[in-house]
Amino acid sequence: MMKVIIVSRIPLPDNPIRGGVEAVTLGLLKGFARFADIQIKVLSFCHDRDLSIQLYDNVEVIYVKKKFGVRKLELWLHARKYLHRVFTDWNADIIHIEGNGSSLLLLNRALGARTVVTQHGILERERKNSPSLRRKLNLWTAQMIESHKWPDVKNVVFISEYNRSLCKSSAHLNWAQIYNPVDDDYFTQKESDGRGFYFIGRLNERKGVRDLFRAMVSLREDVTLDVIGGPDTKEYMSELEGIASSIPAGMLKLHGWQDGERIRSIVERDCCLVLPSYQETLPVVIAEAMAMGKIVIATDVGGIREMVEDEVTGFLFKPGDISSLKGLMEKVMDLPQEKLRQMQEQARILARERYFSASVAEKTIDFYREVLK
User: Which domain holds residue 20?
Assistant: First the structure.
């Protein structure tokens, strides 16, 4: 029986998912639940209380109450020791850290050969595309931590070829390229006959939400857009509300953050995800959309081209090109039903090949075994 400790921030029960890593981790855990020869303990730090739940027969989630107000101090002074104690007491085989940057503060050099790190974000790119000085400073600090701790990393999961290509120091690494998983429930949703659009994510500069709202101002009035997510700042939300006041009534609906079940209900009649980001790595919302048989309009940034085949499973455009975004949304509205259905089917086929949770879990377990050799 293989014993694995996964370190990842995941939401407390009944709380909505607020990030791609949270969604990815939950999808991966559902995949692991299919394998009887592995036991998982998930450590999720920086919560407001201690809690332990049995998520599946072979998956326990331990939520750990924070002791320090600053996350980096929490990871270095508390979480690192907590992780080492659980590893020793449970006699675990593998530590799997879902995240890079400040998460690497959890690394223990003595356990490096048995530790796997999944690199989700490209911090340098995120920092350059962040408008907030505070956010830039936070990302710069995380980048410095990653640079300092990276030589201690021995085993890495790259979530895309894009990630791997940007890794400047990979010669010493044992690595695998494994796409992020999607919760199985997304594959059960039927393709939509509607022509609605939706967006999921943080409402901020990097996600290009302002561009999407500006495109909506001049689109015809039978276009509808569901927006799921919340703002990073009140100032940005105020700007969006100002633009939204020029969008005809009924075209735009703001839903806030929602859990997976509610998201699937909201987008049931929508046929297309729109993601006008200025910077991305491998957005899980695209994988989830394709699993539901949705086509995708997205900017050609980061690893998105690995996910969306232009004119086959969706459409790509340059970031900031509002005119092209508007034109592609109109194109989707006017697609013949047969062409739309064909694109939806291709999206779901590709999603099942790459993002089905059991397949991703199996590849991850194979990598664990390689690490233990």
Answer: 2-181+356-372
